[in-house]
Amino acid sequence: MQYRTMPGSDEKLSALGYGCLRLPTFVGGPASNLIDKEKALRQIRHAIDKGVNYLDTAYPYHLGASESFLGEHVLKDGYREKVKIATKLPCMIINRSESFEEIFQNQLNKLHVDTIDYYLLHGLNGITWDKMKNLGIRDFMDRLKDEKRIRHMGFSFHGRKEDFMRIVDEYDWEFVQIQFNIIDEHIQAGIEGLEYAHKKGMGVIIMEPLRGGSLVGKIPAEVKKIYDSAVVKRSPADWALRWVWDHPGVTMVLSGMNVDEHIEENLRIAGEALPLSLTEDDKKIIKRVRDKYAELLQVGCTGCAYCMPCPAGIDIPAVFKNLNNYHMFSKTEALLRHMEYMGIETPDGKPRWTNSCINCGRCETKCPQSIPVRSVFKKVRKELEHPVTKGAALAARIIIKRIPKVEAFLIWRRRKKSSV
User: Residue 398: its pLDDT value, please?
Assistant: First the structure.
């Protein structure tokens, strides 16, 4: 494992941190997030045994269960002493100053710790930061540090670049967590924010290095062709992670790992990817890949599911995934998958097309990517939810209901998927 020093201290952090937003679950779907505790425990402790020494969680992860899982299971048996714990104050739900202490104490209790190593204000943008300032957050942060109930204070960010610079300048932060990957080089804080924070002496922790997994696994044929043209052969994950770690200002890269093979690959790359190690030819390959994704991607969803649950029952991340797949892969396959998940095999058996949207806008206020969800729904309706698609889904539902064996098979398949 490669280690990098947190600026302003002699603390060595593993180049790879374990993100606890996407732990393995029993029940599929963003609204049901029951952690597979046995599998998650095995995976996290294996990563720790291999050198990972930073676990990143947050108050709302897994509908509030992530912190408790770490405290009740992962941090036992001497593992607390092997890792640094990072969690976050959920600024998006706080509207009174008394909530600061109430939520922080609740987090200590859930994690079964007296001190949190790395504490962040969660998901700041310009508006949220101004709200927190008006509620007295700076005094609260100072008190936490003075009382040694936290060791390092930082913030995670999803917003405009100019707001990022302002927030960095308005408090004595020790570190920041930003979204950064081969596609999002200039999105949100971007490379400009990364370099600005680094010059200010802050540690920089990277989230979404693989953009919620959209940069790996099944990738567009055009992108694969570009990678295959490189002299050095690497997997998409290897390319994407090495590009992030190549930046000297990056202290750590977080990965939300839940597949054994992915964990092993990430651990291997974390031990090899040194700063400033990519060649000019490597960088040209990445640029071509970035340009191709910019051409193909329709919506910048990372699948984080912060927008869920939807009051109308729409699986928003699945909708956006289908839209992107429609443009990046087989149109027929994307249409069939959209028809299956939105029109046939919904949890209650009722169709959940995007015209079910009640126009409440809650999803848009929660989205870290600032996606105009309702506007994108119009594109979805035009390309994926035309009358033929809906008619075929209706016919399929009628057939399924009239043939018990087919319905029984689909129920069995749905349960099987949920157990994976």
Answer: 60
SS3 of 369, please?
A: coil
Residue 218, pLDDT score: 82
3-class secondary structure, 373? helix
Q: Give rounded-to-5 percent helix, strand, coil for the chain.
A: 50, 10, 35
pLDDT at 416 > cutoff 70: no
- Three-state SS annotation for 377-398: HHHHHHHCCCHHHHHHHHHHHH
- Measured from the Cβ of residue 361, the count of other Cβ atoms closer than 10 Å reads 12
Q: What is the mean pLDDT of residues 263-275?
A: 95
CA–CA distance, 195 with 202 (Å, rounded to integer): 10
244 is a domain residue: yes
Domain of residue 64: give its range: 3-279
Distance CA 16, CA 13 (A): 8
Kindly report, residue by residue over 307-341, the tens digit of the pLDDT.
Answer: 888 888 888 888 888 887 777 777 777 777 777 76
Same domain? For 263 and 342 the reply is no
Pairwise CA distance, residues 264 & 270, whole Å: 10
- What is the DSSP secondary-structure string of 102-123? HHHHHHHHHHT-S-EEEEEEEE
**In this structure, is residue 78 part of a structural domain?**
yes
Output the CA angle 32-184-242, nearest 5 degrees.
Answer: 95
Domain count, the chain: 2
Q: What is the DSSP letter of 357?
A: -
Does a cis peptide bond (omega within 30 degrees of 0) precede residue 309?
yes
Give the count of alpha carbons within 13 A of 71, CB side only.
Answer: 21
Tokens in use for 334?
A: 């994307």
Q: What is the pTM of this model?
A: 0.78
Strands 12-14 and 3-5: antiparallel
12, containing H or E segment? strand 12-14
Residue 303 lies in a domain: no
Task: Give yes or no: residues 327 and 244 share one domain.
Answer: no
Query: Same domain for 378 and 255?
Result: no
The tokens describing 262, both together, are 């992915």
Same domain as 248, residue 117: yes
252 vs 245: CA distance, rounded Å: 8
Convert the pLDDT of each residue in 72-89 to its tens digit. 999 999 999 999 999 999
Q: Let me know if residue 238 belongs to a domain.
A: yes
Same domain, 33 and 122: yes
